[in-house]
Specification:
By secondary structure, the protein is α+β, with helices and mostly antiparallel strands. 20% of the residues lie in helices and 18% in strands. Strands 3, 4, 5, 6, 7, 8, 9, 10 and 11 form a 9-stranded antiparallel β-sheet that branches. It has a two-stranded parallel sheet with strand order 1-2.
């Protein structure tokens, strides 16, 4: 977990890129089109069975919702109030630099096939379904009214709900490249994370060949999206683990109030803002200087580190206020760094204790390393001993895992906060570039490049 004062903290961030009104960029308002080859006259019977889940890419919609660009605070605010839609097409995937939504459903999948063509078809089907769901449409011909003898195309629990700023972001884990015979296409920056001091990783909550991050302001909309993609992927992928999250723990909109984590402290004060295109380019988006011929498919993408961080809530709640503030290096009320009056005042690191979280996580303590964070709080009941199973589901995007998360996490080995937290789940993924138009699909650059 990283702190609220710097861009290296372990909570979240969102951003906007592109110019509103430019086709094919994240700033373009849009509605979902029916996928190529699908029309109102297509027989549902002829389409049953697509993707092993009865995916018929027809036209029925369950409330389109208003389209929302990935830029412009006024538009974002209006769209959020109206439950609007975030543009699906763009040079970068939505859900990274997008203003952070309130709810999360994150899922990691294992490959069940080594047939490249079969997996590519699933990616195309997933893209078509994602394009529709993010716009507020049902998958295929909907949840009812079709053939009684066949499962409906959509599971139906989001019927009548608005898009609620749903974004779906896909990533590829290290194992995918070996299983599909693409080891030469695995980017050098997609490294296996080392064992860090204090890690107590649960294998059943770690790893994965494919991930999908669903963010929305309505938890049911996010769960619906993951559920439908899992159905479409049946036989090609199986869910390895998943995590629900609530209450974003940092923000990519600096004008908004900084969220607090479950320890009661503001987190993500210095997070990269979605409007900071220069910082996004420097720290988040992969560009031509980062790739070679084999990894050119990653240009416009990013890398994601996901960590499930258990918080020891009960001991923390018995810790004095002074010690809590010393551990973080900021006051609990305003969120100001030690010796400062306001939350966003530039911190004076030497005024903090040497093991203060803010001091160790700050870019100045990490040769400038900066992460874009989109973390969420979680509670998963109790652990059987009457203690809350709760903490932070840390999501951080970066241009290179070797220069981003790894050095920061190593520097946090002496963090005083480690007495109250433990990393219990871990995964790393390559996040491909965005889907540029209605003929594009998730991962096309990777699989077209290798063909």
């Amino acid at each position: 977990m990283t702190d609220s004062t710097d861009s290296t903290d372990s909570t979240e961030t969102t951003g906007t890129t592109g110019t509103p009104g430019t086709p094919g960029t994240p700033g373009t308002p849009e509605t979902a089109e029916a996928p190529a080859g699908a029309s109102g006259g297509t027989s549902r019977r002829a389409l049953i069975g697509w993707g092993g889940a009865g995916l018929a890419l027809g036209a029925a919609a369950a409330g389109a919702g208003m389209a929302m660009t990935r830029g412009g605070d006024d538009v974002q605010t209006v769209a959020a109030d109206a439950g609007g839609a975030v543009a699906f097409h763009g040079a970068n995937q939505a859900g990274i630099a997008t203003p952070v939504q309130d709810r999360l459903h994150f899922a990691a999948f294992d490959l069940e096939t080594d047939d490249r063509a079969e997996f590519v078809q699933m990616l195309k089907d997933w893209t078509a379904a994602a394009r529709r769901m993010t716009a507020g449409h049902t998958v295929g011909e909907g949840a009812y009214g079709g053939l009684a003898e066949a499962p409906p195309d959509d599971t139906g629990e989001a019927l009548g709900l608005k898009p609620s700023r749903l974004t779906l972001t896909i990533g590829f884990g290290p194992g995918l490249f070996e299983k599909l015979g693409l080891t030469e296409r695995r980017p050098d920056a997609l490294v296996d994370l080392p064992q860090f001091p204090g890690d107590n990783l649960d294998r059943n909550r770690s790893g994965g060949d494919v991930c999908v991050q669903a963010c929305s302001d309505d938890p049911q909309v996010a769960v619906h999206a993951i559920r439908n993609l899992a159905r479409i992927g049946f036989g090609k992928v199986s869910m390895r683990w998943s995590q629900l999250g609530f209450g974003k723990t940092s923000s990519t909109t600096p004008e908004a109030q900084t969220p607090r984590n479950l320890l009661g402290f503001k987190d993500g004060t210095r997070n990269i803002a979605g409007t900071e295109t220069d910082r996004l380019k420097k720290f988040v988006w992969v560009d031509g200087a980062d790739v070679d011929d084999n990894s050119a498919w990653m240009e416009g993408g990013s890398y994601l580190v996901a960590r499930r961080i258990r918080m020891h809530i009960e001991p923390w709640d018995r810790t004095s206020l002074q010690e809590q503030e010393d551990i973080f290096g900021r006051d609990k009320g305003e969120g100001a760094p030690v010796g400062k009056a306001k939350e966003r005042d530039e911190p004076f690191l030497k005024a903090m204790k040497p093991d203060a979280h803010v001091r160790l996580a700050h870019p100045d303590s990490n040769h400038g390393a900066t992460l874009l964070r989109r973390g969420y709080s979680f509670t998963d009941g109790t652990d059987g001993l009457g203690r809350l199973e709760a903490g932070l589901f840390f999501l951080a995007y970066m241009r290179d895992v070797r220069k981003g998360f790894i050095p920061v996490q190593r520097n946090l080995a002496t963090d005083a906060l480690n007495e109250y937290i433990q990393h219990v789940g871990s995964a790393v993924f390559a996040i491909p570039p965005g889907v540029r138009d209605k003929d594009d699909w998730w991962g096309r650059a990777l699989f077209s490049q290798e063909a």
